Amino acid sequence: MPRQWVLSERPTAMPTYSGPNPTFKLVEISTDALQAGEVLVKPKFYSNDPAQRAWISTVEEGRLYTTPVQVGERMRARALAEVLESKSEKLKKGQLVSVGTGWVEQCVVKDSECTPVQELPGLSPTHYLGALGMTGVTAYYGLVHIARTQPTDAVVVSGAAGATGSMVVQIAKNLLHCKKVIGMAGTDEKCRWVESLGADICLNYKSKSFEDDLKKATTPYVEVYFDNVGGTILDLMLTRIAQFGRIAACGAISNYNRDDDKAGIKNWFEIVSNRIEVKGFIVPDHREKMPATVELLKRGFQEGRIKVGDENESVVDTSFEDIPRTWLKLFDGGNTGKLITKMI
Predict the structure, then answer these.
(1) What percent of the chain stands above pLDDT 70?
(2) Which letter, b or e, does each residue of 276-285 get, where b requires 16 or more Cβ atoms within 10 Å of its Cβ?
(3) Alpha-carbon radius of gyration of the chain
């Protein structure tokens, strides 16, 4: 029988998949018979996203942008999956589709939930889960529609070596032509990679001189901050934003596994005194913009302005039993670019 990973217990710190009280549990399931307009799919690649951590947190009803994963429910995830059987006029056996399957060996889905994957000459289809998918759209939408970034702006992005941050760097510098782009990453090696993407400078936030380095790099001040991490770095950045500056609040990964000890904001008055605009956003609120944005990013790649390739993603060969282990790599800083699970 096929197996799936389900939420066993809501975590209050780092999730686990073994031990006495695991976050996730592996269970067997039955597969329903195909009906008209349905397909049986087998995931080949999984997208790993920090947002998944929020989906399994303890939150008050109505305070999350989506319905949380319920205890006993399959862990959600988007996948590139192969069609094993089809009763659909739209999809054929053997076709590769993008679909939200969750962590499951195989499952039945409606054809309306599937997006056929087009061939990308010279590129792995996994980029539809990253740079040319939701990740790239998030970077573009946050910069253009939320922060209203202009060529005259200096831009700072945290998590610049991650999936979204690395696309923010490229879009800001190579598509929007911002006057200065400053990245932050956790190792010197990652910083050099971020600079190779177009950042004018990338700072190692683990360096003892980080605060001084940031002040120097952002002098006099910057107009836009794309925040992927929250916590103490957001607090510090509030002191480096120009008057009437804009912050696109995309993520808060520094606090995702600290339910009982979250890092707070001490420099809140900077928002008041400098009239800083802070706006959170969720791209699924604006799905109608996604197709056009993906096409724009594809053109950027074809014209050589956006780098998309093996260096943009960390693909990890993974057995089904180790799916949670690979997902947890999101939180140890080990990946560069998009973290992809490849089923073996």
Answers:
(1) 99
(2) bebeebebee
(3) 20
Residue among 247, 242, 238, 169 at smallest CA distance from 202: 169
- Ramachandran angles phi, psi of 197, nearest 5°: -80, -15
Bridge-based pairing of strands 180-185 and 78-86 is unpaired
Average pLDDT over residues 304-316: 95
Whole-model pTM: value is 0.94
Nearest Cα to 98, choosing from 129, 124, 135? 129
pLDDT 10s digits, 242-264: 999 999 999 998 877 766 677 78
Kindly report which listed range (13-27, 138-152, 256-270) carries the lowest average pLDDT score. 256-270
pLDDT of residue 262: 75
The runs of H, that is alpha helices, within the chain are 51-55, 134-141, 163-170, 188-197, 210-217, 231-237, 269-273, 290-302, 323-327
With a CB cutoff of 8 Å and minimum separation 6, the contacts of 216 are none
- Expressed in percent and rounded to 5, the helix, strand and coil fractions of the chain are 30, 25, 45
- Least Cα distance to 100 among 49, 32, 24, 33 occurs for 49
Q: Looking up tokens 């005194």, which residue turns up?
A: 273
Q: What is the pLDDT at residue 141?
A: 97
Q: 219 is written with which tokens?
A: 């002098």
Strand residues in the chain grouped as ranges (E):
3-7, 24-28, 38-47, 78-86, 96-100, 107-110, 115-116, 154-157, 180-185, 201-204, 222-227, 241-249, 277-280, 313-318, 338-343
Contact 186, 333 (CB under 8 A): yes
Q: How confident is the model at residue 162 (pLDDT cuts 50, 70, 90)?
A: very high
Contact 155, 149 (CB under 8 A): yes
| Tokens found for residue 152 | 């005259």
For residue 255, the model assigns a pLDDT of: 75
Asked whether 83 and 93 are in contact (CB, 8 A), the reply is: yes
CA 55 to chain centre: 13
